């Protein structure tokens, strides 16, 4: 494995709040001692003035801050916050640049080391093959030496076979090889390493962009899935409500049919009763008309009788008067 050099921390250049230089404090002490030595005769006056200044400062501290002081403090705080934000953004940019440069250097070193290791392994394999080929050549030579003596006929036959094999084999073409200067080869090698590093960085950037895009797509897909699930639940609820309402509608239809049938039966009964009553009343009317006609006939008869009786009575009265 290729060893990567560990660079110094990028935070080493920054000074912590707790680790501030104490050189000023150390330098202030001897200066104060010298001034105290020089002004020993006027020390009492300075102490009295210091007490007065302390009283004034305490009075000023106890006083509430004015509106102008508050505005000034607020403006100073906003300016400090802005400056801190600008410094933070600049530091982040520098930090990202430093980390990118360090990462590129580490990648170049790792690629160089890996390629050197691969070349060393290739050389070791070549040496092993050469040693194995040398051992095989020695073994073949020893075998040839150990062979028995051949007859003339066998020797002639072997010579004839070798000549035929040499005729059949075509000579290999000689490929001209251009000599490359070692400095040019090193430049090409380092350029190749830089190209490999740039390719790796491009691949990593593409992978990061793909991961970000995939993460956004996954978030959007999860949101859409949640919305679809909610809508599916709402659709199921609405379907259940529709089914219940359809069943209730069927029940209401049945009830209405029954009520209509009952009302129709009631109306028919009422109509038949009314018709019967009308027929009965018509019969009574006919009977009454017959009775009235009979009574009128009898009245006329009685009237005629009464008239006849009156005429007879009048005649009898006239006869009596004449006598």
TrEMBL record:
Segments of skewed composition (Basic and acidic residues): 79-102, 132-141, 158-170
InterPro entries named among the record's database cross-references: GKAP1
Bias (Polar residues): 30-41, 67-76
Transmembrane helix found in the keyword field: no
Cellular component GO terms held in the UniProt record: Golgi apparatus
GO BP annotations listed: signal transduction
Keyword annotations of the record: Coiled coil, Golgi apparatus
Compartment annotation: Golgi apparatus
Tree of life domain: Eukaryota
Residue ranges that the Swiss-Prot or TrEMBL entry lists as coiled coil: 221-319
Protein name: G kinase-anchoring protein 1
């Amino acid at each position: 494995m290729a060893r990567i050099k560990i660079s110094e921390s990028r935070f080493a250049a920054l000074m912590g709040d707790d680790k501030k230089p104490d050189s000023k404090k150390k330098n202030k002490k001897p200066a104060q001692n010298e001034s105290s030595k020089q002004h020993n005769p006027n020390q009492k006056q300075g102490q009295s003035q210091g007490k007065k200044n302390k009283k004034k400062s305490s009075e000023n501290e106890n006083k509430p801050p004015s509106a102008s002081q508050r505005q000034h403090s607020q403006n100073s705080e906003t300016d400090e916050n802005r400056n801190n934000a600008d410094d933070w953004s600049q530091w982040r940019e520098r930090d990202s640049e430093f980390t990118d440069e360090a990462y590129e250097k580490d990648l170049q070193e790792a690629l160089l080391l890996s390629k050197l290791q691969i070349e060393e392994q290739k050389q070791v394999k070549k040496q092993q093959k050469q040693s194995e080929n040398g051992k095989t050549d020695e073994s073949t030579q020893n075998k040839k030496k150990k062979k028995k003596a051949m007859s003339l006929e066998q020797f002639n036959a072997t010579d004839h076979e070798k000549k035929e094999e040499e005729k059949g084999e075509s000579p290999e073409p000689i490929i001209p090889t251009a000599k490359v200067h070692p400095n040019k080869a090193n430049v090409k090698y380092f350029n190749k390493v830089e190209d490999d590093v740039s390719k790796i960085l491009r691949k990593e950037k593409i992978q990061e962009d793909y991961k970000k895009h995939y993460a956004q797509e996954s978030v959007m897909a999860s949101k859409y899935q949640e919305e679809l699930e909610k809508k599916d639940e709402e659709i199921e609820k609405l379907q259940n409500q529709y089914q219940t309402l359809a069943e209730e509608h069927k029940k209401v239809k049945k009830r209405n049919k029954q009520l209509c049938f009952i009302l129709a039966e009631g109306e028919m009964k009422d109509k038949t009763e009314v018709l019967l009553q009308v027929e009965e009343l018509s019969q009574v009317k006919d009977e009454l008309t017959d009775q009235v006609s009979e009574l009128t006939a009898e009245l006329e008869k009685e009237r005629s009788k009464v008239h006849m009786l009156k005429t007879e009575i009048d005649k009898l009265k006239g006869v009596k008067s004449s006598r």
